[in-house]
Amino acid sequence: MISVAINGYGTIGKRVADAVAAQDDMKVVGVSKTKPDFEARVAIEKGYDLYVSIPEREKLFDDAGIPVSGTVKDMLEEADIVVDATPEGIGAKNLELYREKGIKAIFQGGEKHDAIGLSFNSFTNYEESLGADYTRVVSCNTTGLCRTLKPIDDLCGIKKVRAVMVRRGADPVQVKKGPINAIVPNPPTVPSHHGPDLKTVMKGVNIHTVALLVPTTLMHQHNIMVELENPVDADEIKAKLDETTRVMLVKASEGLASTAEIMEYAKELGRSRNDLFEIPVWEESINVVEGELFYMQAVHQESDAVPESVDAIRALLELEEDNMKSIMKTNRAMGIL
Ligand code: NAD
Questions:
Q1: Closest Cα to residue 3, out of 30, 29, 32, 31?
Q2: pLDDT < 70: residue spans in the chain
Q3: Which domains does the chain have, with CATH numbers?
Q4: What is the pLDDT of residue 337?
Q5: Among 300, 283, 285, 247, which residue's Cα sits nearest to residue 123?
Q6: Ligand 1 pocket residues where CB is under 6 Å
Q7: How far is CA 193 from the centre of its chain?
Q8: SS3 per-residue string spanning 271-282
Q9: Which end of the chain is more exposed for a tag (fewer CB within 10 A), N or C?
């Protein structure tokens, strides 16, 4: 049984903790918090040992009546591997600590590829992280692109991809972020960083992306155009995506015509926190015109890359050589379709 520490128990960290706890080959030895807020209290109620990220703040936890088991350094002593889910840029700073402690670490998409040296997606480059000390699970958007572009590449080859990424302005909990009433080209420069990020895990793919922020918190939405090496028809693409795990075809005609309705569907599925780990692709949007494939998909930014963090643990510790074996194991434990 592998012992996993979660450093940074926020939007991603708390989901990774529950996903790890659901597996039969790994367990959570602790989670870390910077302050004694409601998430810290819930972590304790769920049975996770809580560690403080900023040692000087231990008294604040005592005063709040939230028991802690020590500091992050103590937590790392208990663990075989750490999943770092701290805010963007902090993970890379923590790398020094992990080196010092001689512990393997998995980082999230907010870190730069160059700072970590290796990036990860379960479907496109699992084997590159086998036995590595550190890897970075690519961002929610890049994970979404990998999930559908990889099977399409396998089916008929990809000549060129163009994608327009419509990004949620903030996560539901982020009251200080926006926009509230604007569409913001973000970044305003073209192409955006999403294409280069995909190339860190899907080498050689010819992709350029543009991105904008919109006033919604629910999901990102992608509009993807793919010039195919060996053109196939829309039905073949539908069949391929339909059989691909962690991807689901949804029908606007069945009332799933928007990100709001897709999130309602996730609630109907009874998912914890209404999460949707799969990438929904609108079936009606899939079309091939003059050899070019068009489709639209959505990304539940808070959860889609969480199963990838579990697979990354197996890759780094070489618990599973075969990516599909890890993917199916993770899926079964998390109830992924
Ligand atoms: P978050 O702010 O929700 O959570 C971060 C947690 O880390 C918080 O609990 C915070 O208190 C804690 N923290 C802050 N400083 C710390 C420190 N020095 N040591 C330990 N813990 C510390 O952030 P998030 O949205 O979960 O993002 C985490 C990472 O995941 C980032 O790299 C982000 O880019 C990436 N990511 C986020 C999303 C998303 O949509 N939220 C999606 C995919 C990837």
A1: 29
A2: none
A3: 2-138+305-334 (3.40.50.720), 140-299 (3.30.360.10)
A4: 80
A5: 247
A6: 7-13, 32-34, 53, 85-88, 90-91, 108-111, 139-140, 171, 301-302, 305
A7: 17
A8: CHHHCCCCEEEE
A9: N
